[in-house]
Design a protein that fits this description.
By secondary structure, the protein is of the alpha+beta class. It has six helices and ten strands. The mean pLDDT is about 90.
Length: about 260
């Protein structure tokens, strides 16, 4: 789907199989930036390359034209198919993205890098000023979606950074299958923060109600019940998020501010 003149979004579907056999349907977007330097932002899960290649060919380009691949962070659903770099072996990392780095995509287009940790320590967001497009990776919690972040305070600080960014007219969040535009950009960032704060309040209430001896999984199950999330979603990376709330002192306020 074309998002702006040069930015395209592809929704890649996959499943996570649990030890008990349950299968959790998931998705992750990948983005194609069609400028002089054909660029991919994240490469999806293993086996995603064929979908990406077909889309690139629909634009009149070839997979071999891919000049640059940028990863917002290192989780498997973002770096899973490096065939997008035409390789079946190890991939050479050509550079590490840090706060303030600017990447020239040719033809006057460019990307600015923001360090936005919280979901993971090295997570970055990308901003294309010429398109008004903000790629925020997985740093923005999505209401109704499994909570996945390693550091609560860092996540809040990163959301403040995104909210303060001027010129962001389009929000491309890796945890959402929607594109947020105009005033809805700030509104959705606020909604993500409110969701994180609600989870924090639920974690603390569950811990107090269950009492001494409560495990992270016990608390997570109570929180998931309150949120209407499937119990099968209490996978290790999600339990890390619950533990991050338990480690947080003092507690967050329940609403932004």
């Amino acid at each position: 789907m074309r998002v702006t003149e040069h930015v395209h979004s592809l929704l890649l579907h996959f499943e996570i199989e649990m030890p008990g056999g349950a299968r959790i349907p998931c998705f992750v977007p990948a983005y194609v930036i069609d400028t002089e330097r054909l660029t991919l932002v994240d490469t999806g899960v293993k086996s995603s390359a064929d979908v990406i290649f077909r889309y690139i060919e629909s634009l009149g380009r070839r997979p071999e034209d891919i000049d640059l691949v940028i990863h917002t962070h290192g989780h498997f659903d973002h770096i899973g198919d490096m065939r997008a770099k035409n390789t079946s072996g190890s991939v050479k990392v050509e550079g590490v993205l840090e706060e303030g780095v600017k990447i020239d995509l040719g033809g006057g287009a460019g990307i600015e890098v923001l360090h936005t940790p919280g979901h993971s320590p090295g997570s970055v967001s990308l901003f294309m000023p010429g398109e008004g497009a903000l790629f925020c990776g997985d740093v923005l919690p999505e209401p109704g979606v499994l909570p996945i972040y390693e550091d609560v305070r860092q996540t809040l600080e990163s959301l403040d950074k995104l909210r303060a960014l001027r010129g962001a007219e389009i929000l491309l969040s890796k945890l959402s299958d929607q594109i947020w535009r105009g005033e809805n950009v700030a509104g959705h960032i606020d909604a993500g923060e409110a969701y994180l704060r609600r989870i924090d309040a639920l974690v603390r209430r569950a811990g107090a109600e269950i009492g001494e001896g409560a495990t992270v999984k016990d608390i997570g199950a109570r929180v998931f019940s309150e949120l209407g999330l499937p119990g099968a979603g209490l996978i290790p990376i999600v339990l890390t998020s619950i533990a991050a709330h338990l480690a947080l002192k003092p507690a967050l306020e329940s609403t932004p501010g």
